[in-house]
Amino acid sequence: MNAISLHSVVPVRAEAREGSEQLTQMLFGETCAVLEEKPRWNRIKLHSDSQEGWVDSKMIYPMKPKEFALYKQTYQSAALVVFPMAYAVSENNSQTIPLTAGTRLTNYKNGRFELLGVGFRIDPMYVSEKPYEMSQQKLFEVVRFWLNVPYLWGGKNAMGIDCSGFTQVIMSLFGKHLLRNASEQATHGRKISDLSKAQAGDLVFFDHQGLNDGVSNPSHISHVGIVIDSERVIHCSGRVKVEKLDEIGIFCAETGLHTHHLASIRRL
């Protein structure tokens, strides 16, 4: 069975209980395969990045095979919410639904989209009908609205986000589809040999352990950010922020210390 989220954000948990660790989140309009059913809980696999976990069964909605097949045809070409937060209004009942960046809007045209036969209105200024072209200027235009969003383990929305959730959402606005976790994202693209050759939009990966022993270990990738230029990175650690990037890693001006050890740079 396939299902869809019609809520702004749905927590995906490690176990079938409310107090369990949040692994990631489903955004409005994301779909999944239901792998297992328990009272109140379903174990799912997200179609977008293959992440698995448990969701509250009342927060997802079953899709008929024909519904899913039709939705799948329009999903990849869907418009994108590009601001950290936007609001859609249902034409059925006039209720407002907050939507976070990276949410895909199927059958979108002129401030209107449709999902499973229900029409919604949204301000066109918050929507892009196609992914952005990557450039340093456009990247900074996008990410500046995310500055100071707080860190949240498993989060991928403007109220709380983790490092790989941040890169996954931001890069989706540029038409790049990433896996969910930093270690998985480190398999994307091609390796860039040194920092002097880095460009805006490159992903940069870090190894906390490397700060202690001076050795970069790719098998222990624990953090990821996005290169703004060869001297700056934007990442989420405590909050989304821009910090100095050098051959050692991320340098924190507040503490005068390197906080993350540079492991690799990859270009999508």
Fold and architecture overview:
With 268 residues, the chain is mainly β. It folds into three domains: 2-69, SH3 type barrels (Roll); 77-128; 136-267, Alpha-Beta Complex (endopeptidase fold (from Nostoc punctiforme)), CATH 3.90.1720. Helix content is 14%, strand content 41%. The protein is built from five helices and 23 strands. The chain has helices spanning 65-75, 136-143, 163-172, 182-185, 210-213, and strands at residues 2-4, 9-13, 22-27, 31-38, 41-46, 52-56, 61-63, 79-81, 85-90, 96-100, 104-105, 112-115, 118-122, 127-128, 156-157, 160-161, 190-192, 203-207, 223-229, 232-237, 239-245, 249-252, 257-267. Strands 18-19-20-21-22-23 form a six-stranded antiparallel β-barrel. A five-stranded antiparallel beta sheet has the order 6-5-4-1-7. It has a four-stranded antiparallel beta sheet with strand order 10-9-13-12, with no helix packed on it. Strand 12 and strand 13 form a beta hairpin.
Per-chain topology:
Blueprint (H helix, E strand, L loop, with lengths): L1 E3 L4 E5 L8 E6 L3 E8 L2 E6 L5 E5 L4 E3 L1 H11 L3 E3 L3 E6 L5 E5 L3 E2 L6 E4 L2 E5 L4 E2 L7 H8 L12 E2 L2 E2 L1 H10 L9 H4 L4 E3 L10 E5 L2 H4 L9 E7 L2 E6 L1 E7 L3 E4 L4 E11 L1
Antiparallel strand pairs: 1-4, 1-7, 2-3, 4-5, 5-6, 8-11, 8-14, 9-10, 9-13, 12-13, 15-16, 17-23, 18-19, 18-23, 19-20, 20-21, 21-22, 22-23
